[in-house]
């Protein structure tokens, strides 16, 4: 349920999906870019005819279309190194998902054990009240018969209120443990923990903290993610250095246009017209005539103009970085700092995990020793309580000795239960650090 519903895990998964898309885009940047442009409009007044480049003073409908192709031939391996950098980032994000899953599984396991622990503590508290009620019934009978010490009856009633208060405290602790588990599962369902579903193993843990740390370095997703982040940061330095290197690219264009005033002219015949000039022949002025060819203008179709006006451009461009305000130098310096930060973060993570393992291993060993000691303590207090109960019921012992013996036994049993689960919790944490499935 937690792996399906937990909000923190969902958020980590979304971040990983972002890294995946960035990696895809980095690979897609290797491909040429192809873009088209089209426009159409109306121009009124004095303008230049895009078809003839002549000045005109009339309404003009114009249209242009262009197709651009750009392809990077060489840019200092910036694109290739970016692809590698984004690949490391993607793999690191996938490792962080695994890390989040492992952490979530650990937290659910610990929360589940805490519910079991508080359930056992509540059971002990209820059992304690049952025993107290039996004693209260006996003391009430003696009190009604005016036999024995009346103070014992009052003391046992006071003990009952203490036991009832302990039950309320245990119920509150159990409810808090269930709420913590429900929050991890992101569910409103009622939590019922079954002890039979989990293996309670009390064998002494044989691995040292150093053994656990070595396994953690090899298997823990946290270290794998950090190592991949270091590799990605180092690739970032190579990406920044590409800004020092000239970039060579290929470009191509296909262009065409349309003008509403563009026309074609067809010869329709000729006519004799007077030119307005004169010549003198034998002292007589004669008008000059000429033969002028006649034409008929026709608008050129939109698609025909697009076809007739096609032109292409191809070439190679070289972009040489000469001076850019030290931007390239500073970017390389920044990427080097990020690479150093990633190395420090890896070392810091290593130290934190090492310290955590040492502390958990120490607490685990202490809990195991306490559990062994408390087993003997419970056995001793059980015998003490058995004897004092018999003596108290037969009027040989007073209530103080009886209740002291009873409280000692109840507290020892509660401490034994807590030590039992504390040990199991620490073992689960150590196995988590080793990279084992819980």
From TrEMBL:
It is found in: Cell outer membrane. SUPFAM superfamilies: Outer membrane efflux proteins (OEP). Pfam families: OEP (PF02321). Residues 336-384 form a coiled coil. The keyword Coiled coil applies. Keywords: Cell outer membrane, Coiled coil, Membrane, Transmembrane, Transmembrane beta strand, Transport. Belongs to the outer membrane factor (OMF) (TC 1.B.17) family. This is TolC family protein.
